[in-house]
Amino acid sequence: MSGETGNGFVVFDRVQKSYDGETLVVKDLNLSIGKGEFLTMLGPSGSGKTTCLMMLAGFETATHGDILLGGQPINNIPPHKRGIGMVFQNYALFPHMTVAENLAFPLEVRKIGKSEREAKVKRALEMVQMGEFGGRRPAQLSGGQQQRIALARALVFEPELVLMDEPLGALDKQLREHMQFEITKLAHDLGITTVYVTHDQTEALTMSDRVAVFDDGRIQQLAPPDVLYEEPENSFVAQFIGENNTLEGTVQEIKDGVALVKLDGGELIDAKPVNVSEAGERTLVSIRPERVEYNKDRLQPDAHTLKAEVLEFIYMGDIFRTRLRVAGREDFVIKTRNAPDQRRLRPGEQIEIGWLPEDCRALDA
């Protein structure tokens, strides 16, 4: 799947990119981003997501196809004339200028008068809760403060589109989570269209209206976070987003929207056929760890059950994480809520696990 085009605010229309004339880093990309949408491009390194962002910014040119902004092709417009705000991981602040001068710089370039400049700088600093810091130099600020200033500088000239490339990569976990919330809130409050690049799936799921999952230069799936997690369209997305269990097998039959799969260990299970279409096909069956149950009284009447052996039981506070041997595999994980009626399992214990057939997806092998 390569996304879709339409009358979006940002449109990639059959965009391709090659650096050597042979290998395509981005392959026939069609993508439409709505005005005010927060879209994240997510994928492993080398998947093409940053190249897409750089083409949109104007630092790279598309080898083929068009990129449109507000209905106008921007392929031949230089970066500084595209009116796009940008935030990068390394902040890119001018060290010899004060914070206020850093923020005033994009306004000077746009020939905005002194009094209006000062008002806009003041407002941008207040937006990121850095009102007192105008007179300081970047070197006198912490990493988190520098990132706020970089964000304020991207917003100071009130762009309609902001691009962010791994902007929180250098921050520690707690600050990072706090900034994720702040950036999302600011973007929605100001109604800015945001294109965000990250390889961090949690960040993508918590911040975005929609996520485009990239691999091998193509969009593998484009969907809101919950759909991406609950209904992955192929094995790559299922494995890349969140934790996932897979069991290998062969499709025996597909009937009434249910695939009967014979696992390599010999067991038969039902699964929802997502991208398998006929008997004899190899498949990877995918089940999320939190959808698996081992308490007999919690199992639904139509649940599927398999025998399992407990290999490892880890207490994580709010949840228990248990690793099992299932159908010959030793990497099957279940996550259960730490509740009064959930008993703790012991390594070596033989148990029965179960799940609902609709939580089990037969994907490509």
Task: Describe the protein.
By secondary structure, this protein is α+β, with helices and mostly antiparallel strands. The protein is about 25% helix and about 35% strand. It is built from eight helices and 19 strands. The protein has helices at about 50-55, 100-110, 115-125, 145-155, 175-190, 200-205, 225-230, 235-240, and strands at about 10-20, 25-35, 40, 65-70, 70-75, 85-90, 160-165, 195-200, 210-215, 220-225, 245-255, 260-265, 270-275, 280-285, 305-315, 320-325, 330-335, 350-355, 360-365. The strands form four sheets. Strands 6-7-8-3-9-10 form a six-stranded mixed sheet, sandwiched between helices. A five-stranded mixed barrel has the order 11-12-13-19-14. Strands 2-1-4-5 form a four-stranded antiparallel sheet, with helices on one face. A hairpin with a 2-residue loop joins β9 and β10. The chain is globular. The mean pLDDT is about 90.
Please describe the topology of this protein.
Blueprint lengths: L9 E9 L5 E10 L4 E5 L6 H9 L6 E6 L2 E2 L10 E5 L10 H11 L4 H14 L15 H13 L5 E5 L7 H18 L2 E6 L2 H7 L2 E6 L2 E6 L1 H6 L4 H6 L4 E11 L2 E6 L4 E6 L8 E6 L16 E12 L3 E8 L2 E9 L12 E6 L4 E5 L1
Parallel strand pairs: 3-8, 3-9, 6-7, 7-8, 13-19
Antiparallel strand pairs: 1-2, 1-4, 4-5, 9-10, 11-12, 11-14, 12-13, 14-19, 15-16, 15-18, 16-17
Low-confidence stretches: none
Instruction: Give the structural class.
Output: alpha+beta
Shape: globular
Largest sheet, strands/sense/barrel: 6 strands, mixed
* Helix coverage percent: 10-25%
The ordered H/E elements are EEEHEEEHHHEHEHEEHHEEEEEEEEE
Radius of gyration from the CA trace? 25 Å
Secondary structure tally: strands: 19
